[in-house]
Sequence to fold (484 residues):
Amino acid sequence: MSSQQENKGIVLKDVNLHYGDYHALRDINLNVAVGERVVVCGSSGSGKSTMIRSIIGLENHDSGHILIDGQELTADAKSQETIRRNVGMVFQQFNLFPHLTIAENCSLALKRVKKMAKGEAKDVVMKYLERVHIPEQAEKYPSQLSGGQQQRAAIARALCMQPKFLLFDEPTSALDPEMVNEVLDVMVEMAQDGMTMICVTHEMGFARQVADKMVFMNQGRIIESGDTVEFFENPKEERTRTFLNTILSH
Amino acid sequence: MDLTTMQDSILPLLSALPNTLMLTFVSVFIGFCLAIPFALGRLSKNKLIAQACYAYVYFFRSTPLLVQIFLIYYGSGQFVKALEAVGLWHFFREPWFCAILALSLNTAAYVCEIIRGGILSIPKGQWEAGQVLGLSRFDLFVQVIFPQAFRQALPAYGNEVIIMVKASSLASTITILEVTGVAEKLIAETFQPLEIFIVAGSIYLSLNFVLSQLFHLLEKRLNRYLPHGATRTN
Ligand SMILES: Nc1ncnc2c1ncn2[C@@H]1O[C@H](COP(=O)(O)OP(=O)(O)OP(=O)(O)O)[C@@H](O)[C@H]1O
Ligand SMILES: [Mg+2]
Fold:
């Protein structure tokens, strides 16, 4: 990978983050190149959410550097605004706006942030709702959709802003088992379209299928990261092996 | 019970209804407009702003409305010179101005707390979803948080409006002839308080019946698609 490419991607350099006294991220180093798909896993409380949230400025790191597309992310509003123009995020709990229809959920930021005209925004919204296979739900409210449909709507809402990078924090963990696949299928399609993704998930089938790189976290550190096949076939760390054994035996 | 007195009092009392409505709704409107910045002030990270807003709320919730009305109406008489100097005396001389000012400031304190509660009830994820979409703080509040907070606060808010209808009767103490003021005047003429207060009371009762039905409809409409049944059950 050339350094040129690296600069265009997401770079975390010696990132540390504390919640009060609690050291939640310890010396995190991570490079995600444009077009790369990275899956992050690790036990509960290991700092996966914290790491992914710090990349979009929902948590502020207290030392180290986070660079996105060559731009440094700091705590100031201007920097966050720049970063969020390039990065989107999908949450475990969907976080759709319950008082707006699916189409309004998707078009809100297009109109308010991108200052897009109504008609144009509508076209963009329909394009991405079709991409996630729920164009017929456009006029419904979130509470009228199934969990899987809601998460796909949330994905469409993120896609509408045409981010260069998309972050997922356990996007299928809040779903009933029978709805997990419809969401994963959409994510696989996005990966095939070349979207750069960092995805926290314990769906190892999905990881094997799309990830270029696996990251394993434990107690605030990345203790193993590397090529997906290598990670699954030949994990170097004892903890990684234990984790994979537990999770794959389900 | 003297039915003729009751019948005779209906028209004069009803003709005072516009004054009651005016006092109530002008104050409710001004109070609402003031309450939003106060609620945001209460939630501000700036300690000074937060405490100043709390002091305001504390004062107006902890003293009787009647005392507030008297303080503004009679109290301003102590500062005629100062008020004249800034050109405000001819406002404070007016009972109507003083009544609306006191009612507005009073309801603003309560509505501030109602709205603050509504805002606090919105899950953190709603703020975060708006932030990652790049919405400005203003848009995030106006488009996402406030509409939901208001729906949450609606039952309590409806209650406050109804309380205001009744509170407007205190304006009669500073010579304003709204429903209660007219009732007192009629009693002084007829010496039949029971009959007249029954009619006056029925007017408040009917007005508040209409209002509570309207709020109930509004709640049902706005909360149609909200999860976790924000709608009142009664
Ligand atoms: N706002 C916060 N304040 C204090 N501590 C926090 C906060 N958020 C997270 N933590 C702590 O930081 C650690 C890492 O949390 P994080 O949510 O990143 O873990 P995770 O790997 O995403 O876990 P999970 O799989 O349960 O989602 C945990 O011990 C958690 O208790
Ligand atoms: Mg997490």
Notes: The radius of gyration of chain B is 21 Å. Residues 131 and 137 of chain B are 8 Å apart (CA to CA). The pocket of magnesium ion (ligand 2) is lined by residues A 48-49, 169-170 (CB under 6 Å).
